[in-house]
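ESCALATION

Customer reports they have been waiting on this structure for their group meeting. Please prioritize. Original submission:
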Amino acid sequence: MAVALDILRQYWGYPSFRKGQEAIVQSVMEGTDTLALLPTGGGKSVCFQVPAMAMNGLCVVVSPLVALMHDQVENLRKRGIAAAAVTSVQGIRELEKTYNAAIRGELKFLYVSPERLSNVVFIERLKVMPLILLAVDEAHCISQWGYDFRPSYLDIARVRELHPHVPVIALTATATPAVVQDIQDKLRFRKRHVIASSFLRSNLSYIVEKREDKEQRMIDICRSVAGSGIIYCGTRQRTREVAALLNRSGVISAFYHAGLPAPARAKTFEDWMKGEVRMMCATNAFGMGIDKPDVRIVIHADVPSNPEAYFQEAGRAGRDGLAAYAVLLWNEEDPDKLLRQVETRYPPEDFLRRTYQLLGEYFRVALGSGKETTHPLDIGDFSSRYGLRAAEVLSALRLLEAAGYISLNESTQVPSRLHFTVNRTGLYRFQVTHPEVDPFVQVILRMYGGLFEQYVAIREEEIARGTRLTIDEVIRYLRFMQQQGAADYVSRTEHPRITWMSGREEHHRLRFPPESYANRKEAELNRCRAMVRYLTSGHCRSMQLLAYFGEDSKRPCGTCDVCRAEKRVTREATLAMDQALMELVRRGSVPVHDVTRALPDCDTEMLEQLIRWKMDQGQLMLTAQGYLTVPPET
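Update from on-call: job pushed to the front of the queue and completed.
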């Protein structure tokens, strides 16, 4: 652990591990299969990155979020750590370069999307990679009882067969007891081993309010709570509407969703991080990579579909450990709306077959062909061309993915990449031959490192500012360098991408096993029902969430809306009881054993406690004859 701590300090600059991290790091370094449960913001990535740095070899990280993979790769590279990602958006040249670097031991971390694990070429390369650790992020995706089950995660077992002695660390922020067991079974743990940090957030007050006037309530909350915040909305249009409403009310706000162009998303995010925008009104697309510690308030304008999503989103408040609030607003229609949305997300199987058939026509993929080919999909264009509703199409695509027929990459934030395909001498010759491009190349060399060795994420807007060119001119220069063989430029991806997991089949032969449709639907309905119970229950909110995730807590939080209401009721009842008791005693001394009969409306236990307390405080006294009376000086 001394080595691990030195690595943490050297590369991450932290003096010590956070609560819960040290035990996980030690377990991994001892070679033990480990399931790590850490709440949102608990620092899961350090738990596998630090041990891997202490070992001699490669760590393969399986993650379903392509944009997050690129984000983590860039963060590692900035720390001087060799890392790369393999996803469906990359071309053959980029993939081969990455595979070869991993095999030669030039990489410490290789991030892969789960569908890559069924790729024959990748599996052959993986056999000869110097693997020393397998990390599975968002591990709940491997369980059909998890809220985001992905069948491609089941292929992780194949990696364990190729490298049977390599330990695995599985990480997730949200898992019920059933999912915890299923993860370990599916990943073939050599023995069950779970390290869980408490899901308790003592500094976070959970507030649930039934409101028909949600909009006015959001304004009132934003005005009464200082600091920055997030308002989660159920639709893209709702984010725009809520942001406009708050701005009209004097609360500086912006909106964020996956449909915005990448530059707009980046600018909005940057403004919010710097505090120039106070409230971010967003869909659940706003979550990845958020590391703003001073968020004081998270408001849900619409009810999330399950407790897992709610817990993660609410948990983005108060990461600095100071008091923060998570407010969930709901109205009479919301519970039924939640259950109806499940039906929408599970269209009939015939609709799934038709969508699959139309995908083949849209991409012109012949029957039996297309295996492992990837295509960008404009869902809006696809839906309008065939007269379908975009929301139903997206649901169908997710279910086709769950059944294993396609892989859907919904990420819209995969950055552009650049790699110099010549060495430094070759690049110098290119600059001499094309002097008009020379200043442009020099700026890029100053801005980005590692371009000769690997594909590096770049931002055209950043280059434009550095070169005083327009973005179109930057792109033209980059493409010119590619045409001349000096560089390989891969422009960023803005649309979801579809990968055919097998050759196109006849649509009427498609089958949807229970785990990909019926069981999945029932599990989602159960999560929705749990969310409805959370809204309507009269029990401590924190205790409800802890119980859902299998953590036993017998002490109410004292700060949620339920606990506050109980305190208020108890205080009012105590004041009324105190007044009745003192009036009784002042009318004349009364036998202590007759007090409870004289005050039949008072709770007996509470009344006896009150009498003892008032005697201790000298406000009442007991005579030698057993009568309660008021002391002379009172």
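Sent to customer with the following note: Residues 33 and 189 are 6 Å apart (CA to CA).
Escalation resolved.
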